[in-house]
Structures are given as C-alpha cells and as structure tokens.
Specification:
- The chain is α+β, with helices and mostly antiparallel strands.
- The protein has 2 domains: 1-76, Winged helix-like DNA-binding domain superfamily/Winged helix DNA-binding domain (Arc Repressor Mutant, subunit A); 77-259, START domain (Alpha-D-Glucose-1,6-Bisphosphate, Chain A, domain 4), CATH 3.30.530.20.
- It has 10 helices and 9 strands.
- Helix 1 (8-16) runs antiparallel to helix 4 (46-58) and helix 5 crosses helix 10.
Length: 259
C-alpha cells in the first residue's frame, strides 16, 4: 500500500479551506513567494496566513526553502498527483491526465521544488535514482547511464536501453551518496524542451524514522521556460514512490511513454 505524507486526510482537509486553496492559487501564479508577499494579498493578519501555510506544509502541499534571510514558499503538486493516481487514473483518458497536472508555464520564478515522502531506506532510494533499469520503471521509460557517479562525469538518459532513444544528458556536479546528487540537465525529448538549454536538478534525501523525504529542486531555468522541461516531475516522483513501496508500475498515461 502506498503511504501519504501526513496522511491523505490532511491533504483533503487542507484543500477544503477556501483560503488555503487561494494560497495555492497564488503560488501557482507565482512560485517561491515570501510570507510578506503572500500576506499582502489577503484580508487577514500575517499570523492568520502563517497558520494556513503551516497546514499546507503539514499536508505536503507547500514546501519551503531559505534564500539568505528570506523563507520562500513553493507549491508542491506531488500529493495531489498521488491522490489522482490512487483514484482517478484508472478511469481517465490520456488527455484527462494531462489536463489534471498543475500547469506552471506562466510563472515568473523559474525554480521548482518538489517534495515527497517514501517508506524506504536512503540506500534503496539512491539505487532507484542511479540504477538505469530501475530508473526506467518510473522515469518515462528512460534509464540513466554514466561511467562513474563522481563529480565531473557525464551522463545520458536513454529510453529502450543504452544507445536507444536519447531523452536527456548532462554533467554530474555533486555526489554525496546516499544523501545528495546535483546534475545539469539538457532535455532532448522534444524540440521545445531542447531549445531551453541546460538547467540544474538537485536531489536531496533525508531519513525520517522508517521513511525518506526526497526533495527535488529544478532550477537555473530561464524565466518563462517551456513547461515540458519540468511538468513531468509529479508523475515521475509518484511512480518512484509507488515502485519502492509496492513494487508496482503506474499505468498513468505517459509514465512509460518511451518503453
């Protein structure tokens, strides 16, 4: 059985409040906002906005990161994707799944932060990120291949096995096994994504009791970058969680697109 960060009840409880939905709408419109910026848009006290943001964080719908003295808030669509995968995708047509994904193409802050909790060990999670056969099970059918998992090494993302269909490539910037992995990424899966050039992806793993918190930060994208470059992360992370916790593959449209 797939587990949910904080429990699926917390996700529905957080979404039931109209102010919290409005906060998510604000982060959907412009990601990475401070408390001060968000509070200015609501007719309530700063403390009231803080309480609503705390509830959204507890449900995993908002994640935060520090930038100097500022604390930035990011919309995390992964819990919503998990709810979709649990009850909806079995009945949905391919176009319905595409429409249900949160679209962030009009946002101006081109740094995306995604967070998910997985009942597994750091070592097993690391293997799932770096083993090409396992990676292909949840990453649109694409495995990751490199001569060495060390800083400065090149890697390629091949679908249908090494030397098949090249979906992406880049350089490994940092390796702290099994806690942190930083890579550049240049997409080749579409002309639109390829035209965006090189961006950066940071994987951070933290063990929390019998689970791991995985945070993925996709940044160094140009303002207004094409959504194809980063829109697939909720599906990828949902597939990763499902595989590690159940050993099953998601059949969501696109999950195994290039297999």
């Amino acid at each position: 059985m797939v587990t949910y960060p904080g429990g699926v009840d917390e996700v529905f409880r957080a979404l039931a409040d109209p102010t919290r939905r409005s906060l998510l709408d604000e982060l959907y419109r412009e990601d990475g906002q401070t408390l001060h910026a968000l509070a200015a848009r609501f007719d309530m006290t700063r403390f009231g906005v803080m309480k609503h943001l705390a509830a959204l964080e507890d449900a995993g719908l908002v994640v935060t990161t520090r930038r100097g003295r500022e604390k930035l808030h990011f919309l995390n669509p992964v819990p919503i994707r998990l709810v979709h995968d649990r009850w909806v995708h079995k009945y949905a047509e391919p176009w319905a799944a595409a429409l249900s994904e949160l679209k962030e193409g009009l946002e101006t802050t081109m740094e995306k932060v995604f967070e998910i909790y997985i009942r597994t060990t750091p070592e097993r999670l690391w293997d799932a990120l770096t083993d090409p056969e396992v990676r292909a099970k949840y990453n649109f059918g694409a495995g990751i291949y490199t001569d060495a998992w060390t800083a400065g090494s090149a890697y390629k993302m091949w679908a249908r096995g090494e030397g098949g269909f090249l979906l992406g490539e880049g350089e490994i910037l940092e390796v702290d096994q099994p806690w942190r992995l930083v890579q550049t990424m240049r997409a080749h899966f579409s002309p639109e994504a390829e035209a965006e050039g090189t961006s950066r992806v940071t994987w951070e793993i933290e063990q929390i009791e019998d689970s791991c918190r995985l945070r993925v930060t996709h940044d160094q994208m140009r303002e207004g970058a094409n959504e194809q470059l980063y829109g697939g992360w909720p599906m990828i992370l949902s597939g990763l969680k499902t595989w590690l916790e159940t050993g099953e593959l998601l059949t969501t449209p696109g999950s195994l697109l290039y297999t």
